[in-house]
Amino acid sequence: MNGKQLAQMAGLCVTLAGPALADTAQPLRGPATVTARLEAGQSLTWPLDLDQGTYVTGTLDSGRRAVDLALVTAAGRDIRLLRVEKTGKDTFYFVTPPAATALQLRNHDDQGAQITLDLDKIIPPEAQTGAPAPQLLSPAMARLAHSLRTGGDTRAFWAERRSRGTPMVEPASTAGHSIVTFLWQGAQKNVRLWGAPAPDHSWLARLGQSDVWYASFEVPDSLRLAYGLAPDVPQFDASPRENRIALLATLQGDPLNRHPVYANAPDIWSQRSLLELPDAPPQPGMSGPPAPEKGTITSFEFTSDALGNTRGIDIYTPAGFSADDPDLVVLVMFDGPAYQSDRAPLPRILDRLIARGQLPPVLAVMIDPLDGETRGRELPPDPAFLNAVADDLLPGIGRDLGITIDRSRTVVAGSSYGGLAANWFVHERPDVFGNAISLSGSFQWSPDGYRANGTPYLSHLWSQSAPRDVRLWMSAGQFEMAARPAEVSILETNRHLRDILRLKNVDVRYREYAGGHDYVIWRGALAEGLIDLFARP
């Protein structure tokens, strides 16, 4: 078989109650683009004829309809969910497991969906390469290496790890630090660590010819991070970026870690693992008994003619909500679906903080970004998106709920591009947004054509004009450094903007965490920011 082909896909199989479409569909051969219409409840199945271990990338665009994509067996049993109830355009990556025989699309929407499926890249196992090895740091790994050199094996080592869990944590010679070693058993070519306490994803090294793959780091005892491991990542003749993102094809939770991020992950590839060292700061609202009363979440669709799209909006209303409460805080939260997941459960956090009296009532407006392409267009400064939120969405919510939206008690918050947007919203529309919480804001971003002698764009804006009577809360991770010398980092640009704001006498509060670009950091930082800005006296 030519490894760069989807060889002879024996026709298009359709699972539906109405007329079959198989006779009208054309077989797929090699990288291809297919368009089709799925009626409500319909599924389409494409057989795969690929060697085990083949790396595949592609995109699925279903417009405004919620369409799933799954790898399935010949009997139709799910092996891996590549996309679940999502709209818009998404990229998927996978390595073919032994039993995978087909790709299946499922339209869960109550209306028909026009879909476009692109298969962009297919790399067979023989075209993939391995990875380099770092130096030993862990004393335990040094002892194991010595044992292997003198005729020992790894059985006792792995038995201890299964008993005690992973990663392996050892004391460091530096006070307030530990050595953390991430481990994988039995990969063939390589293993990569996603979410490493480092500027970039890190390769694990193989210990001699054993079944032990490892990567060790000396880290602060206040470290908190979510991570995943990607065994046998396809590497091939392509750009550095393509080889880097190939880890998404095999990325999964650590099988020996006892602290999964997601309570109900549908498969191992959807799971991530949590590491919290003993001095990791408490995260308000993440622990303790549930609140005696829970807030409610209502959803509606928001259509903007200016933006040319329709998106979901979820509104969290606190328990005992009163439209006349003068202490009510209105929180505008970007990436709304992500902040309702196990990794950042904002409604649950608000329930606890409000019930405990740590926060006044908070009404949260959680905005769906639709998809990665739309998010990347709207969250970096986009006047049309700003005006849609400030002049259309928020006033409409105010009218519907009968509340007065007070700029001094309105806060816009987000992470990464969302943090960039939150800061910019306050700069441009302080008449609506009196407060912002920026979590790892992507302040290294600048618009096309911008030149200002190396000054980051938002730093330049605030240095030229600084609105009065606004409050900014900012945070960044200590590992959000540049991966390459020519790049400017999130950490550096956050510090620079903080300094500019202080020079302009803007009310700014800033915090750094021993972590990275990570929702398990942002959930705690968001709660701290809300408490810092709005806690009752």
Output the strand order for the largest sheet: 18-19-21-20-22-23-24-25
- pLDDT < 50 stretches: 1-25
CATH topology of the largest domain, anyone? Rossmann fold
* SS field, number of helical segments: 10
Number of domains: 3
Q: β content, as a range?
A: 25-35%
CA(first)-CA(last) distance: 71 Å
Describe the structure.
The chain is of the alpha+beta class. 21% of the residues lie in helices and 29% in strands. The chain has 3 domains: 13-127, Jelly Rolls; 139-276, Immunoglobulin-like (Sandwich); 296-534, Alpha/Beta hydrolase fold, catalytic domain (Rossmann fold). It contains 10 helices and 25 strands. Strand 23, helix 8 (457-464) and strand 24 (471-477) form a beta-alpha-beta unit. Residues 1-25 have low confidence and may be disordered.
Show the helix and strand layout.
Blueprint (H helix, E strand, L loop, with lengths): L12 E3 L16 E7 L4 E5 L7 E7 L5 E6 L5 E9 L2 E7 L6 E6 L5 E11 L15 H11 L5 H10 L3 E4 L5 E9 L5 E4 L7 E2 L1 E2 L5 E9 L3 E8 L8 H6 L27 E4 L19 E9 L4 E9 L11 E5 L12 H10 L6 E6 L4 H7 L4 H19 L8 E6 L1 H12 L6 E5 L17 H8 L6 E7 L12 H14 L3 E7 L5 H16 L3
Q: Top keywords for this entry?
A:
537 residues; alpha+beta; disordered N terminus; Immunoglobulin-like; Jelly Rolls; 3 domains; 29% strand; five-stranded antiparallel beta sheet
Give a brief description.
The protein has helices at 139-149, 155-164, 240-245, 346-355, 372-378, 383-401, 417-428, 457-464, 490-503, 519-534, and strands at residues 13-15, 32-38, 43-47, 55-61, 67-72, 78-86, 89-95, 102-107, 113-123, 168-171, 177-185, 191-194, 202-203, 205-206, 212-220, 224-231, 273-276, 296-304, 309-317, 329-333, 362-367, 410-415, 435-439, 471-477, 507-513. It is of the alpha+beta class and 537 residues long.
